[in-house]
Amino acid sequence: MQQQKRQPELVEGNLPVFVFPTELIFYADDQSTHKRVLTLYNPYEFALKFKVLCTTPNKYVVVDAAGAVKPQCCVDIVIRHRDVRPCHYGVIDKFRLQVSEQSQRKALGRKEVIATLLPTAKEQHQKEEEEKRIKEHLTESVFFEQTLCQPDNRIASSGPSLLTVFLGIVCIAALMLPTLGEVDSLVPLYLHLSVNQKLVAAYVLGLITMVILRT
Length: 215
Fold this sequence. Notes:
The radius of gyration is 40 Å and the shape is rod-shaped. It starts with 17 loop residues before the first strand and ends with a helix. By secondary structure, the chain is an alpha+beta fold. The chain has three helices and nine strands. The longest helix has 37 residues, at 121-157. It has helices at 121-157, 162-176, 195-214; strands spanning 18-20, 23-27, 35-42, 48-54, 60-63, 66-69, 73-81, 92-101, 109-118. It is 33% helix and 28% strand. Helix 2 (162-176) runs antiparallel to helix 3. Among the domains are: 18-121, Immunoglobulins (Immunoglobulin-like, Sandwich), CATH 2.60.40.10; 162-178 and 191-214.
């Protein structure tokens, strides 16, 4: 006798809730925005029942604040702002959507949506444009700062340094000085170099030549 497969027990509060949008903005000067729509999606294989809660229920009217969503379907929840006064401008309210199985009372998941009343859409548009302009300005500033630094780096790295050139000249001069033991020389004796000293100068000059060729 085969046993029926039981649906795995869902943990309370861990079920993801899919709601769009996650923010509601109402504009006092635009009556068409006083009504907003929340869409609740149910991507699961079982039906869900939902309930809409609010931190300030006296300011809003929620059409169908409770109901059910069939598997792999969605429902629209209409929310109307009914207290459009200047004292509420900028105040952030919250809605919470709780979902559960139709046969259960415990909430399997919840999602919060914020709601804000603004005096006019123009202020919001100006704010968004200002933020966009600042971001573009910062991006351009970083871009131009990088391009301005690059030529300086190329100039600094092009050609040998003065120290390298100076050491090369010293080595060449050392090789041109007379060697110890030469009698017929107008150069003072203390400037006569030994063979080992000239070998060292020649070795250093070879290293300097390699450095100059690489740069």
